Amino acid sequence: MSREETAESARDEGDPLLSVRNLQTVFHTDRETIRAVDDVSFDVYPGETVGIVGESGSGKSVTARSIMGLVDSPGEVLPESSIRFNGQELTAFSDAEYREVRGSGIGMVFQDPQQSLNPVYTIGNQIREALEINRDITGAQATKEATKLLESVGIPDAKRRLDEHPHEFSGGMRQRAVIAMMLACEPDLLIADEPTTALDVTIQAQILDLLKDLQEERNLAILFITHDMGVIADISDRVNVMYAGQIVEKASVENLFERPEHPYTRALIESIPGEHSRGEGLNTIEGEVPTPNAPADHCRFAPRCPQAFGACDKMAPQHIDVGETVEHTAACLLYPEDKAEGERLKHHRALAGGDDVKTEVSNDE
Amino acid sequence: MNSGIEQPEQTAQLGETLIEVENLKKHYGGGGMFESSSVKAVDGVSFSIQRGETLGLVGESGCGKSTLGRTLVRLEEATEGTISFDGTDITTLSGDELKTWRRNAQMVFQDPESSLNDRMTVGEIIREPLDAHDWKTKTERQERVLDLLTSVGLREEHYYRYPHQFSGGQRQRVGIARALALEPEFLVLDEPVSALDVSVQAKIITLLEDLQEEFDLTYLFIAHDLAVVRHICDRVAVMYLGKMMEISDTEAVYADAHNPYTRSLLSAIPHPDPSTSSHRITLPGTPPSPRDPPTGCQFSTRCPAKIRPEGYKHVDEAVWDAIERFREVVRERSRMSLSTVDRLKRQLGSFSAYDDIDETVTDLFGDLDVPTDVSEHIETAAGLVKEGRPADARDHLNDTFNGACDLKRPDFHPVGEHNHMSYCHRHESDYEDVTPVITRRTSDS
Ligand SMILES: Nc1ncnc2c1ncn2[C@@H]1O[C@H](COP(=O)(O)OP(=O)(O)OP(=O)(O)O)[C@@H](O)[C@H]1O
Ligand code: SF4
Ligand code: SF4
Ligand SMILES: [Mg+2]
């Protein structure tokens, strides 16, 4: 089965596990309000891997922290935002309720495993503690389970390794230990924010293989965040491309690389030094990623977009269907491609006005 | 840059050898009676760099790339070996001679955040090496800095700004301008784009290419990103644990790698094209410590093409993998037992520090059909571990299962055109070649 089909069949099997709608997270500073995440919507179904890819500062980590309830002042998740996990509305949760979800339903792996490990305690103590708090497993039973977990993340000589401290582990092994700790809580969803970015490629390959195996064994859903297009291609079933706080394109991983539709995605893919050798020249994107500090009443990519036209500075593009099979959308005023400019702008205006249903139907005709 | 800086005589022409490195070693710590415990960051490498070319240096963290780069520009003293630069052995230079030579070779660092002094203006940062070398008059220095700013794609008014007002890409431009100030011939670029986003990366790479052409620069380009290296380098050298594993023209290395490590490394790069289902070799474990490298081939603890001893050709892949993993576990334990404090700590923590070895044996061999000429040795070793003699267990396993790769260092063999060299026993006629072995051993995984 191709990953496209996998992606599709996962989606046929009922409700999403995680459903994010209109997520808006802002940071208030003295001078300005940074709209780090500005109207982001996406779903994650059981057993699938959804990627978020984008350059530095595009809002990937803030998206992850918002879902986990880890945004602190001066940051704020605005009230219009909705994050539904397993049918529950997380944005309405108290701190205590959120802690409970983090201990059971959702596990998180960061770029730096030290962030999740306490240097003072042995790896075994930390996994046993997670087992006790979240699953009431204690004593010899906990040691046995902890050994099994360490083995399942591919750490050899697991039983003895339980007695070691984080500093006695290599970087890749620490990341494995964090994953074992997360598995101790039997989560349905794993949020991984650049989990392999600090690792060497051969170790990165081990961790990516491990995540795929665990996903298969446990029907784990994974939200995988990275700036690396190669990693995203390797691990995701479907991908969301972020730019300046917004998702600009969503597609299955095959479609994204075969038929990128958004001008930013295209430019990003072309600027990766690929299998070309010297002399072929690299495509570059002029300018830099802006800080999203003004409302999105325009296309944020416009100042750098090679295809920008008059309207791009004046109205916000909406997500338009650009594919035939699985969900593939791009937020760009060049679409729907078959319509004339005036029609397209009208279409976007109507969508922005909230008539999604009506316009989507007319789009399908 | 035709500002007329006086260079020491230039004898080498484009395409001639600019730098010739022979048996270069850089060991840290140790020394005297502790030599055996020193960190062998660079452990005997020989290669050359041609004038005007870009030599890429790739490998995993800790393999000695940066140390090698720093040693080439004399930021580190070589422990052994020679570096000849335009015919002069620079490892022995000192005092004024060294200072004069330093103009020739500069370095650009990875982290544009920390490599620039935040209290100095950008202009002062770029001017600093000119001041240090008493280059011409103050006005001329100032003018030179303005020229440099334009060369690297910054603007003259940036002279009075501070680094923190700049983006990562702009700071890297400042670092490059500074390195170019004294008009060097040779630049060591240590991961110059690793900290940057792809779109910014592409611009810095383009800048480096333009500057090379304009000023006839020779580059050593250090990186862990193999795609970037393929793009910018004429030739590539691959390092592992202080050793050079393979070197050749870029395309020869990427399209026709001979060394098992190079092949594994290349296969581990995730491709930004999900339809290419290239076969990935996932290496087990992590590189060993450069303090205690393997006796034979540096790559022998992880190599997918490792040569087995004669008597064990019949053992199947899965069992052999389990043997190698078991040896790794026992090696780890014998290493730990070197430290008495550790041992005490461990013994206080549990009744016997070694009571769980059986569990590891079961975990590794439990599901496998293990021939008796293997299992008897595994049992003997496990017994020794339980008696608290992991070093003896390790030696027993070594005596039984050691092959050519564990026992002797390979030679650097010529393997093709373009001075293609590779460090591996399998290039000798006594052994089967690398490709069929790797294909066979990784086909069912
Ligand atoms: N605590 C904070 N206070 C103010 N602004 C913040 C804070 N945290 C994040 N931001 C801003 O939010 C935006 C998005 O940041 P985020 O960390 O999510 O980016 P990212 O896509 O994860 O980037 P990277 O690839 O560098 O990790 C940036 O403009 C950032 O400066
Ligand atoms: S909306 Fe306009 S500026 Fe934005 S991506 Fe599309 S064409 Fe470019
Ligand atoms: S010498 Fe042996 S261990 Fe080293 S690379 Fe060759 S086959 Fe592998
Ligand atoms: Mg981030």
Which key features would you list for this structure?
heterodimer; A: alpha/beta; 8-stranded mixed sheet; 5-stranded antiparallel sheet; globular; B: 445 residues; alpha/beta; 4-stranded antiparallel sheet; 39% helix; 17% strand; elongated; binds iron/sulfur cluster; binds magnesium ion
What does this structure look like?
The complex is a heterodimer of chains A (about 375) and B (about 450). Chain A is an alpha/beta fold and about 375 residues long. Chain A contains 13 helices and 13 strands. In chain A, the strands form two sheets. An eight-stranded mixed β-sheet of chain A has the order 7-8-9-3-10-11-13-12, sandwiched between helices. Chain A starts with a helix and ends with a helix. The relative contact order of chain A is 0.13. The model of chain A is unreliable at about 355-365 (pLDDT under 50). Chain B has about 450 residues and is an alpha/beta fold. Among the domains of chain B are: about 110-185, no CATH class; about 310-400, no CATH class. Chain B contains 16 helices and twelve strands. Chain B has helices at about 65-70, 95-100, 120-130, 140-150, 170-180, 200-215, 225-230, 250-255, 260-270, 315-335, 340-350, 355-365, 370-385, 390-400, 405, 435-440, and strands spanning about 15-30, 40-50, 55-60, 80-85, 90, 105-110, 185-190, 220-225, 235-240, 245-250, 410-415, 420-425. In chain B, the strands form two sheets. An eight-stranded mixed β-sheet of chain B has the order 6-7-8-3-9-10-12-11, with helices on both faces. Chain B starts with 16 loop residues before the first strand and ends with a helix. Mean pLDDT of chain B is about 90; it is low at about 1-10 and about 350-355. The interface between A and B is large, with 55 and 55 residues. Bound molecules: adenosine-5'-triphosphate, iron/sulfur cluster (2 copies) and magnesium ion. One iron/sulfur cluster binds near residues 307 and 334 of chain A.
